Amino acid sequence: MLLADISFGQIILSMIWFFFLFIWIMILFQVLIDLFRDHSESGAMKALWVVFILFLPFLAIFVYLIARGKGMAERNAKLQQKSQADFDSYVQSVAATGSPTDQIAKAKELLDAGTIDQGEFDALKAKALA
Questions:
Q1: 91 within 8 A of 99, measured Cβ to Cβ
Q2: According to the model, what pLDDT value does residue 18 have?
C-alpha cells in the first residue's frame, strides 16, 4: 500500500516545506512588483536586479530587502494613500448630486410621474434637507 509508506511526520514536514515555498514565492513576487512600480529606478537597474534575482535568487532577495526595504514600505504606503484619495474623490463625485433644492425637484418629478409615492418623496426630501 502506498499510504502505509508515508508517516505522519513526513506529512507534517511536507506541509512545512510547502508553507515556506509559498512564503518564498510571495516575497519574490512582492519584490518584483515593487521593483517595477518604482518610477525612480532606471530601466537598466531594473534589468540588473531581475538578472540578479534570476541567477542568485536567495541572495538577491536578501540584498534587495536590506537595500530597498524601507523604500518598499514608503512606496506601498504612498500607493495606499493615493488609492484612498482616489476612492474618496470618486465617492464625493458620485454622492454630490447637486443642491438640496435640485434633489427635492428631482424627487418631485418622480412623485408627479408616479414612480414614487408620497412617503418615499417625504423620505427623499428629509434626506436632502438633512
A1: no
A2: 97
Task: Dihedral sign for Cα 126, 127, 129, 130, please.
Answer: positive
Q: Amino acid identity of 74?
A: E
- At position 87, the amino acid (one-letter code) is F
Distance in angstroms (rounded) separating the CA atoms of residues 56 and 21: 16
Phi then psi for residue 97, to 5 deg, are -100, 10
For the chain, the structural domain boundaries read 3-96, 97-130
Q: Which residues of the chain have pLDDT under 70?
A: 1-4, 94-97
Per-residue pLDDT reduced to its tens digit, 54-83: 999 999 999 999 998 888 888 889 999 999
The pLDDT assigned to 95 comes to 65
SS3 11: helix
